[in-house]
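User: I'm writing a short methods note and want a consistent example. For ATP-dependent protease, I'll paste the sequence; you return only the structure tokens, no commentary, since I'll be parsing the reply automatically.
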Amino acid sequence: MRSHSDLPRVLPLFPLPGALLLPRARLPLHIFEPRYLAMLEDVLKTDHRLIGMIQPRDMPAGCSGSKFHKIGCAGRVTAFSETEDGRYMITLSGISRFKLKHEVEGFTPYLRAEVDWTCFRRDEGGAETDRGFDRQGFLVLLRRYFREIGLSTDWDSLCDAEEELLINSLSMLCPFEPEDKQALLEAPSLECRRETIVTLIEFALRGGSSEEMPQ
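Assistant:
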């Protein structure tokens, strides 16, 4: 697909709390539920091979409204392998974010929705840059955070990674709350996404909880 004009109007949806996909990033997924095995089978028959990742909303009992966030990200199935018991390991490569318009009725066991791509034309371009990025200061803060939560990583690779790859990979991999992941997805620029990560990390290091995060 060369541009947003090539993207389909209707997408199969894969709602998964805490799973974040961003444009030009890759997300590995384990597919085993029958409805999503059916979805994958149907998707592999299409030219675009796109799946829309979207986060469910935490809806209080008795509240009306959409059970999904309005913004998701579509990924193209670029790798898959089947296990002996019929499950699949797949990789989605992020193509573009989308706005959810409404669910589409049909006979599939999985969800489908009509989507709008027009707000995210920037996603089809090349990698973003972050002119205000202080890599050294950011990595110092990140080291403190990883020590605090007991994570290890290849720091040499982080030091050498391009800005977008570094920031987007951390957005996807760090154990932030689902609502925080959604905020990272909806960030209008790479700089804004990096600033959001810094805020989340600083708040976590102060011992705060996601419920106390300033809105």
